[in-house]
Amino acid sequence: MTSSWTGSTFIRQRRTDEDLADDDDAVISGGLFPTSLRRRGILPTGCCSDPRMKLHANADFGPNPHHPEDPARIEYIMRTLKANGLVFKGSDADLLKILKKEPAKYMYRIPAREATREEICTVHHPQHFSWVEGLSKKPTDELRLLSSKLDQGRDSLYVGSMTFEASLISAGGAIETCKHVVNGTVKNAIAVIRPPGHHAEFNQAMGFCLFNNVPIAAKICQTEYPEKCRKVLILDWDVHHGNGIQNMFYDDANILYISIHVYMNGAFYPGKPDNPMTPDGGIEMCGAGPGLGKNINIGWHEQGMGDAEYMHAFQKIVMPIAYEFDPDLVIISAGFDAADGDELGGCFVTPECYAHMTHMLMSLANGKVAVCLEGGYNLEAISKSALAVAQTLMGEPPPRLEPNKKLNKDAARLIAKVQAIQAPYWECMRPGIVDVQDLKDQGSMRLHDVIRKAQRQGLQEKHNMIPMYIHRDILFRSFENQVLVTPGLFSARKLLIIVHDPPELHAQPDPLTNRLDAHNTYMVDGVTEYINWAIANNFGVIDINVPHYITHPQDNDAFTPRPNEKALQAQIQDLITYIWDNHLQIHDADNIFLMGVGNAYLGIKVLLINRDVKSRISGVVNFVNGNLRPVKSDVDQDLSGWYKENSRVYVANDHACWADADYTRKVHKRRFGTVIRSDVNGLTRMMREHFGDVQQWVMGRLSSEEDEEEGHGDTTEEEKFA
Amino acid sequence: MTSSWTGSTFIRQRRTDEDLADDDDAVISGGLFPTSLRRRGILPTGCCSDPRMKLHANADFGPNPHHPEDPARIEYIMRTLKANGLVFKGSDADLLKILKKEPAKYMYRIPAREATREEICTVHHPQHFSWVEGLSKKPTDELRLLSSKLDQGRDSLYVGSMTFEASLISAGGAIETCKHVVNGTVKNAIAVIRPPGHHAEFNQAMGFCLFNNVPIAAKICQTEYPEKCRKVLILDWDVHHGNGIQNMFYDDANILYISIHVYMNGAFYPGKPDNPMTPDGGIEMCGAGPGLGKNINIGWHEQGMGDAEYMHAFQKIVMPIAYEFDPDLVIISAGFDAADGDELGGCFVTPECYAHMTHMLMSLANGKVAVCLEGGYNLEAISKSALAVAQTLMGEPPPRLEPNKKLNKDAARLIAKVQAIQAPYWECMRPGIVDVQDLKDQGSMRLHDVIRKAQRQGLQEKHNMIPMYIHRDILFRSFENQVLVTPGLFSARKLLIIVHDPPELHAQPDPLTNRLDAHNTYMVDGVTEYINWAIANNFGVIDINVPHYITHPQDNDAFTPRPNEKALQAQIQDLITYIWDNHLQIHDADNIFLMGVGNAYLGIKVLLINRDVKSRISGVVNFVNGNLRPVKSDVDQDLSGWYKENSRVYVANDHACWADADYTRKVHKRRFGTVIRSDVNGLTRMMREHFGDVQQWVMGRLSSEEDEEEGHGDTTEEEKFA
Asked: Which residues of chain A are within 8 Å of residue B39 when distances are taken between CB atoms?
């Protein structure tokens, strides 16, 4: 069985023989480790650390001197790497001997060194360098005072007498790590360094960061290896946004900065409270000038993200864009504060997931990946995470992820938004994104107007319903034609007023252009059935369609936001009170029923609160799958009680209020009405499910009122109007 | 600087010390290679081959004995692995000594062996085993006859006197390779084996395949290691569909079969010509019973796919589903006939892309990946591809892909369809997929009816246009209300007949539910402007909306296919000739203009061909961004010439006809009319762009006819009808 291993003569075609020349011995002779030209993979992984970085410690000798950015951080990580056999315990000379034979056995020690002033000033202002340098000359009491002053708000910093020196080594460690990766001494590498860097700005230390290690290293590599290292991807998975890195390269076309972080609409560190409109970490921050599209923020809307969300971000955004960018070097700004166990971060990324993210990034740049420690404050969590990353760098298969973690829906929506925002800059982000400005240039119209026109046509054909006359100047144009009424409304003895959301649309758009084929788009509408039933039972009907959105001509966002609830509420209030004051108040119907569907049920709430209508209303039926709203009034103490007794509020089965016992208790209070948990979800499904129930309830209230309270008897409409 | 490497006392928190116990020496003692429990990655990669598999050769000694499935295939691959230093040239004993010290230096030799009858019959019928066994007993002339008979159609097979023995070793090699991976003797492995297996059915040899190596190996691993190897992912990237694997595990919940192959609607091997409705490789084949959802076909619509499409398939489908399945073992059915250079496959996958796909799969199952050779017939291509795969298995970073390859649009659509088809079975496929059956259960209506209703309402309000009366029994219901006409049509002196596609819709649906907000959905319509203009200029207008799709109540496909052009053409022909025969033929208008927009311009073609209308038509204007159609007639030889002189056919700037010189020449022939390349793309944009041009052209033809041919002078409509 050995002939195919040692060569054979059984060859019928020889056309590739030249390619098959034996180049087993072709090696890179200049490097530390002799390696076949085609086998960079057998180079060792590098690791850079230096105990001098532990000398940066808090000078604030107050009653609670502990600070999360503690010297023990790198100590713990290094001990863990050692305990797991990744780090050799003997001398450098012995290590080198071993690695030349067995390159994957241990990590190669990359020596750290102090960065120079020139190196640091590639991305920092000389005055900033001098400020940090000055710390080493300050007396201890002054440092103590400074630390306690800086440990506030956005600064969030401490300083000590050795801060300058430690910071120089941290930056120098990052430089040496990246250089070793670029020049091929090692396959890839990890720098276990501190203080971290990614918050440090051009001219300011902040967020535990003095010098911005990763940008310095990236700049030095680009300068010293202009051929080999032109394009750098910096992937920042620290739970905080790396404002410093973003700002340093915001207009740089050759540095792609991708950050995955908790954003919370700017409320999470380092959001800018002084300029809340544009915190650095927002997803709309895409770079500028030549760097447009080279800044990608995946800023979670809340804490609590874990493997499912990070894997999703990598699959949907990070890896497709990274492939398209095709970097020469990947630097990971590896904070481990999104790790499961880090209380500051409040996220749940497992060591396994860090391994998988590392493994994915290792497919880029011929495997040239340099990992630089940033934040991360739970010693156990950062150690386990860093171990997983280092093992993966060394060629260990990433361990299996815990399966079937549910993807957070809002995170999935955020990812889709990031895709829409990056679509102009990246081919791979374009499929499935609508260019709203371009559609407007083609004279498009929003579909909600089209649909309401069709509804009006349908209700007119079937029931002769017509638009109600409304003084237009008091209302936005969006409410035009939104109110349809049955003919002879004023002589109806029974009225049903339905305030509803527009019908639901579901579509399977073309995956590339998002063009819809109308025949693949479906409209689902639960209201028509109720109108048909009401008219068949001689109700007069007022059908009020409330658009989700009040059109503003300047909106060009592909995801036009859901309506500003306050503005919409003001509009609905104007409309519904207008209808009440001008039409219903003077109406002498015996029975008036209100029905609210979806977010539009807000209209029912504002009518009940703003007009004293209790005595005129025979019942209220609401279908809710969004915000549940209380009906109460400071003026009318009986309102909530009346509402409870005279309403049925169907709430979707998957509504958040059922998941939380406190919330459930709350919605059973009087002011939320008689709340009923539906067996189903979705407005249309709910309306169909409870149709019989509602009919019975309405008719039951009707006859009892007619029979007992007003004694109208059981006459039919025909008899009354005969 | 050595203290952090060798341990230190600088620790302020000790809470994780127990976890940090030094377990450097904990090894798996049973294995061939001692390895730290936490470092499976330093095990060697295995490789299995055996020269005896070359003994299966074509017994058909005809004038052209060469067969693509040639013994040289494995010879070339092994030589290439050797030439690149992946395979040791010395003895097994020396290799073992080296690997114990330097596990990544060479691949470990996994010995092949003959599979047993029992092993093979885990997936094959005993009669099939006996049939193959019988080949070894047949005389050469009989084998020759059999080979020449089998080398036809779907059988596509050759046999020889050593076929049985070689097939046993091929299957045994696959078994040993997978077992070595599962039991952890090696990190991962590649089996360079032949004959291939994936076409072989339970009871039939076909497609160069005798025994189905990979299913046999999977079954044996599941049986022998029930704990360690319960769930197996078989990823088949051979360019042909692995019908045998699919059918053997079609109802098996523990084997996920994913195949990426050329399908061509069943026309590509091994499509089933005897049952063209359900060729095995169709994307709708999802498994059955307990195996429902465990069969995934990514069947390309055509050849020519390359890195962009394969990476896209991996990013969008393969990896998300594989993570969700979470296999214990990954087997790659690795045909290299989709490789760039393989003429049979006609695809362009590079060695780099094979490396990346391998690297991605290595993130699964704790890295337990076994690669088994299937097809691939260009010796150079398969050797380079196998080398890239083997290097990646050994820990080499995957080489960079050639950047910015354009993704084939139809391939992207196919991937989206696969997502829709798999959505019921995989959580990760669900976001963005519409469940049509569920929408129907909610009583939805297709949006095209809604839109047409709105258009009708609009044209009625603005121009008093009304539906034309049409005998319904001769036409499908879909054409109801699709024809609107201006009032007093019969007295109009000038007519414009517009046959158009429905307006375009563009939407940004919710990324999870595909629910549309109508305010985020845009309708773009180029026709209304022309109608307004025509009516302002006293034209009578017939507006014919041609739905893309004729509704069939039983369709539940999220992507209802674009219309069957033939059926649609028959319908349009019925409609347009009905209108001509009943309304226009007897009309005495001086000028009739025809306008065709989009696919509906088919209507213009069928009218011109099926009725002799030349003398009545003053001009034809078409806007085309889909199929360009010739207007010619065997009966009327002058028709094409007349069409050329009396038409303007605006063709989208990005139409395929401009990309190819032959095609361009062709569309400038008379029968395509006067074809004009537009500066823009998209029907609506084109109609806006050429609005002025069309007005001028139409008015120019009008006045000349009126002035010269019929001498009507320049009277206005008012004067005429005064």
From this structure: 84-85, 391, 394, 396
